[in-house]
Amino acid sequence: MSGPPLRVAVLGAGVVGREVIRAFLERPEALRTADGAPLELVGVAVRDVQQAAEGGIPAHLLTDAPAHLVAAQATDIVVELMGGEEPARTILSAALGAGKSVVSANKLVLARHGAALEDAARRNGAFLRFEAAVGGGTPVLSPLAEGLGSDRLTRIRGIVNGTTNLLLTDMAERGTAYTDALRRAKRAGYAEADPASDVEGHDAAYKLVILARLGFGVWLDPDRVPRTGARADGEPGPAGILGVSPEDLAAATEAGLAIRLIARAELVRGGRIAAAVVPAAVPSGSAFGRTVGVGNRVEVEAAPIGRVAFEGPGAGGASTSSAILADLRAIARHAGSTWAGLAPARASADVAAFPAPRAGHLDAPSGARYPILD
Ligand code: HSE
User: Is 186 a residue of the active site?
Assistant: First the structure.
């Protein structure tokens, strides 16, 4: 026998929110598990109620007061898809403080305030799940926390930003101009509201912080994760992919390499964690080299299992909604938070530097120096 329905409030009806709402309206059976309570949509908070109603969301569900919806007695679970730091952080804290479970895709808030939110969830017996924050719909975080929970991780490497991967691969393989490729990523709903977060590497740094929490038990400070490329003259390059020129991409292809924005974190000497999000060269035929378009790929090395990889669509409303719905089902069957089963994490401001790459560097025409990752 399952219990009474769990009443769900969705905050935000953007690219992902609309798909989640559509699932509630059109595929309610997807929200049921054999061993969990059924889930029921009780409200949707949006900025513009009229526009949302015109877009097909039933008017009786709509409100422009997210904090009230979260506080309402009729809300058991909050799905936060507003994005941005505030008011999302305050609303999430309030929900967890009231013992209400939360599903969030908010990478920024989780990376910046993860330690406090984890603490609030643990203290109040609420679940906080955030599979959609990394890898879009591709399951990465739960497998890391649960399936590899008894392994000792030594390395995480990933292509975790779909927008920049689409830009790099469209430019390298189709000769698309940067601005045209960015327009395509925006139109497809892959880019952030402010795409500077994608192209400057912030979004990937947030995701790396979240991966490191599950892999290494530490909430790193995202502001301490380096995001600038290197230059052969020793000067720092621009942030994220801003310094990657079409000539650099062509030179990499010529050398049998491909340039990718790689987020990586590694256990280094003294038990410290090195972390960075920088453009790097990878062999064209490697799994990272073959990860194109909006695809994401995360590889972890762990003992005793060895290397494990997760790959799939990394952005977009329909695919990302899959992770939200999976988290809702997990809450309905009392599966706990995304970190369930792992020890509480500590916060750390310490981020170590990486040792020099074994395979050397690619010195490119623009003056950029890309580490070659094998
Ligand atoms: N802007 C993000 C990306 C969305 O392109 O990967 C998914 O997190």
Answer: no
